[in-house]
């Protein structure tokens, strides 16, 4: 009970919660992107990958629930820390100098909430209640066609691209903060780690958004004929 109280009721504990859940979510984002990019290797590859994941449904649902729990704890810890920081500065009339903070750091809470809403929407749209539930020649869920159909809708594609933009803005600051919390981003190495955080955010953004962009430009449309 004392450990639980120390973790969830102290600023340091909340920082650890935010850091650890952020690290887990960062790993998920990378894995999710690498898996999804297999769509460019063709219908057989992405359908086989999806079938492999679905071959262990209990583990898959544990991962999905764990993802949502991590997002919820991450947002909770962040909001609590923001509230505590504001309470520690009683004067609300001090001049806010935007030059000492970044856009990403100033919008962390809002981008986090929007990303959470996007994850819920994405789970329903492509996992829980997908629009297309057909099967391929090997009687596997035709994930390739499902993705092509989903991103053929300009609204879905644009929403996905915007949400990924917010995700990567969030990540760019989150990764910087993670390096600082671990004690890596200090002295002469700070610039390197900060640039790495921005670079990895761009890699994720380009990787994720390349799929809807390619579909809107005609990729995979032959399966719809």
**Shape from CA axes?**
elongated
Low-confidence stretches: none
Order of H and E elements: HHHHHHHHH
| CA(first)-CA(last) distance | 61 Å
| Number of helices in the DSSP assignment | 9
Assigned CATH architecture: Up-down Bundle
Round the Cα radius of gyration to an integer and report it: 20 Å
What do we call the CATH homologous superfamily?
Fumarate reductase/succinate dehydrogenase, transmembrane subunit
Explain what the structure shows.
With 225 residues, the chain is an all-alpha fold. The protein has a single domain, classed as 3 helical TM bundles of succinate and fumarate reductases, CATH 1.20.1300.10. The protein is 74% helix and 0% strand. It is built from nine helices and no strands. The protein is elongated, with a radius of gyration of 20 Å. The model has no long low-confidence stretch (mean pLDDT 79).
Question: What keywords describe this structure?
Answer:
single chain, 225 residues, mainly alpha, 3 helical TM bundles of succinate and fumarate reductases
Brief characterization of the structure:
The protein has 225 residues and is mainly alpha-helical. It contains nine helices and no strands. It has one domain (2-224): Fumarate reductase/succinate dehydrogenase, transmembrane subunit (3 helical TM bundles of succinate and fumarate reductases, Up-down Bundle), CATH 1.20.1300.10.
Summarize the SSE layout with pairings.
Layout: H1 2-9, H2 11-36, H3 43-54, H4 57-87, H5 103-106, H6 108-128, H7 143-151, H8 154-181, H9 190-216
Helix pairs in contact: 1-2, 2-4, 2-8, 2-9, 4-6, 6-8, 8-9
């Amino acid at each position: 009970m004392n450990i639980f109280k120390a973790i969830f009721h102290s600023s340091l504990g909340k920082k650890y919660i935010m850091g650890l859940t952020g690290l887990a979510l960062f790993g998920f984002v990378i894995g999710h992107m690498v898996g999804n990019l297999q769509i460019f290797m063709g219908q057989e590859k992405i359908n086989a990958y999806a079938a492999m994941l679905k071959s262990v449904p209990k583990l898959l649902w544990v991962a999905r629930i764990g993802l949502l729990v991590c997002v919820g704890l991450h947002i909770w810890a962040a909001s609590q820390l923001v509230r505590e920081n504001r309470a520690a500065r009683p004067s609300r009339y001090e001049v806010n100098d935007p030059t000492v903070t970044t856009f990403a750091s100033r919008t962390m809470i809002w981008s986090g909430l929007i990303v959470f809403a996007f994850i819920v929407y994405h789970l329903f749209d492509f996992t829980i209640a997908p629009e297309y539930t057909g099967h391929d020649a090997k009687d596997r869920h035709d994930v390739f066609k499902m993705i092509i159909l989903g991103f053929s809708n300009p609204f879905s594609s644009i929403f996905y691209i915007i949400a990924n933009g917010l995700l990567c803005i969030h990540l760019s600051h989150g990764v910087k903060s993670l390096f600082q919390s671990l004690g890596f981003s200090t002295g002469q190495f700070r610039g390197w780690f900060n640039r790495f955080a921005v670079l990895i955010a761009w890699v994720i953004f380009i990787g994720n958004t390349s799929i809807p962009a390619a579909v809107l430009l005609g990729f995979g449309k032959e399966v719809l004929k």
